[in-house]
Design a protein that fits this description.
Blueprint lengths: L6 E7 L16 E2 L2 E2 H10 L6 E6 L4 H8 L5 E6 L4 H14 L6 E6 L7 H10 L5 E7 L6 E2 L5 E3 L7 E10 H11 L10 H8 L6 E4 L10 H13 L1
Parallel strand pairs: 1-4, 1-6, 4-5, 7-11
Antiparallel strand pairs: 2-3, 6-10, 7-10, 8-9
Helix pairs in contact: 5-6
Keywords: Isoprene biosynthesis, Nucleotidyltransferase, Transferase
EC number: 2.7.7.60
GO molecular function, one term: 2-C-methyl-D-erythritol 4-phosphate cytidylyltransferase activity
Length: 235
Amino acid sequence: MESARRSVAVLLAGGIGARAGLGMPKQFAELRGRTILGHALAALHDHPGVEGVLVVMAPGYVDAARVVTAGHPRVLDVIEGGAERSDSTVAALRWLADHALAGADLLVHDAARPLVSARIISDCLAALATHQAVGVAVRSSDTILRADATGRVVDVPPRGELWRAQTPQGFRAGVLQRAYDVALADPAFVATDDCSVVLRYLPDVPVQVVEGEDRNMKVTGPDDLAIAERLLGLG
């Protein structure tokens, strides 16, 4: 039955965060006494709709991540990711298949977004009841220009059609696996996120937008750390 499907979150923390200039993966930077990884983990782990969280960590930092995840009983495991984001997703899908979770509803979230809200998580899970793929996004308040390699503007897409992508992204795990099966057979495969893999390689599967929040920001550099610190102080 549809209601019997399990819901699992994959927390992608495989990047080393070089742009943050911290000398360590930015996931271990602290915001008000807790690591970025810890904030993102708590948001997923403590949500009543998420049965378990699989953490995918940068190579060489699995043991450090286990320290952060200690005391979180719904953490399924901490595994090593790959060189690219897509490699980490594939590693997670293989782990899920090996542990009889290939039929689960899956939320894939970037650890670099530590301020994701319970509302966003709930809406993603609810959308997966009727959709096979969902992506969190916020409407663009800016006009977006498309330019060629020389910097010449070649297009100005209608702003009303433009959204800024966030995470989590939600999938029936089997759908995401099928998309990657096709993608990995393509020598030209390059992916920036998992929704793009589904859009390109399973064009018959629509991706439904779930409304995000500006607060659900991505921490990339030192300025982002300062902004996230202030947002956390606002509650």
